[in-house]
Amino acid sequence: MTLRILLIDDHTLFRSGVSALLQRQPDLEVVGEASDGVEGIKRAKQHLPDVILLDLNMPGLSGLETLQLLVEDLPDTAILMLTVSEDADELTAAMRAGARGFLLKSIDAEALVAAIRKAASGQPVITEHMTAKLVEQMRKPAQPASAPGAARASAETLTARERDIVRELARGASNKEIARALDLAESTVKIHVRNILRKLNLTSRVQVAIYAMEHEGMADGAGERGR
């Protein structure tokens, strides 16, 4: 299956370089480019890409604002932030807003291609040394105002089986991997994930993983295994 990719970045030469790189892959197709958030949203609705590579710092509509609008309009599209920023707050804000991953522009070509394929399969991807920053950030006292709805979410509403699935999501497992680990049908896992998102008032599996990290005991395997 060919993965359709949209590039949103205000640097023309960078877009051209990434596009040329990705077009060499037989399973990747760059279906469009945009130089700002407004144009990017328009092209995203036009092409319905599988993966969007989105710059964080752009003039006009910021990358974070663009991300929030894209997640709302195209919830099934994997959006990867591709940026020079190593700011932990921006990383956390992007992941909370629904980004599937956070990559630095210094990433090598092979790793970028692998990240795109992984994100398209439903798994979160974060540049390795930024992962430690995310974990450190998650250990700080939660700021409910920065995550709308999170303050109202309660793990107590989850069933034992849903808690099992939350732990697997926190490890970055795909639906297929969760189904194999818990001896469930993949279709059943999808239903559980949808119910978890609804109960926790979240919009993406990445946000579920962050929620699990913020609530000690959910991501470390503690608790009862599903009935």
TrEMBL record:
<feature type="domain" description="Response regulatory">
    <location>
        <begin position="4"/>
        <end position="120"/>
    </location>
</feature>
<dbReference type="GO" id="GO:0003677">
    <property type="term" value="F:DNA binding"/>
</dbReference>
<dbReference type="Pfam" id="PF00196">
    <property type="entry name" value="GerE"/>
</dbReference>
<dbReference type="GO" id="GO:0000160">
    <property type="term" value="P:phosphorelay signal transduction system"/>
</dbReference>
<dbReference type="InterPro" id="IPR058245">
    <property type="entry name" value="NreC/VraR/RcsB-like_REC"/>
</dbReference>
<keyword id="KW-0805">Transcription regulation</keyword>
<dbReference type="InterPro" id="IPR001789">
    <property type="entry name" value="Sig_transdc_resp-reg_receiver"/>
</dbReference>
<dbReference type="Pfam" id="PF00072">
    <property type="entry name" value="Response_reg"/>
</dbReference>
<keyword id="KW-0597">Phosphoprotein</keyword>
<protein>
    <submittedName>
        <fullName>Two component transcriptional regulator, LuxR family</fullName>
    </submittedName>
</protein>
<feature type="modified residue" description="4-aspartylphosphate">
    <location>
        <position position="55"/>
    </location>
</feature>
<keyword id="KW-0238">DNA-binding</keyword>
<feature type="domain" description="HTH luxR-type">
    <location>
        <begin position="151"/>
        <end position="216"/>
    </location>
</feature>
<dbReference type="InterPro" id="IPR000792">
    <property type="entry name" value="Tscrpt_reg_LuxR_C"/>
</dbReference>
<keyword id="KW-0804">Transcription</keyword>
<dbReference type="InterPro" id="IPR011006">
    <property type="entry name" value="CheY-like_superfamily"/>
</dbReference>
<dbReference type="InterPro" id="IPR016032">
    <property type="entry name" value="Sig_transdc_resp-reg_C-effctor"/>
</dbReference>
<dbReference type="InterPro" id="IPR039420">
    <property type="entry name" value="WalR-like"/>
</dbReference>
<dbReference type="GO" id="GO:0006355">
    <property type="term" value="P:regulation of DNA-templated transcription"/>
</dbReference>
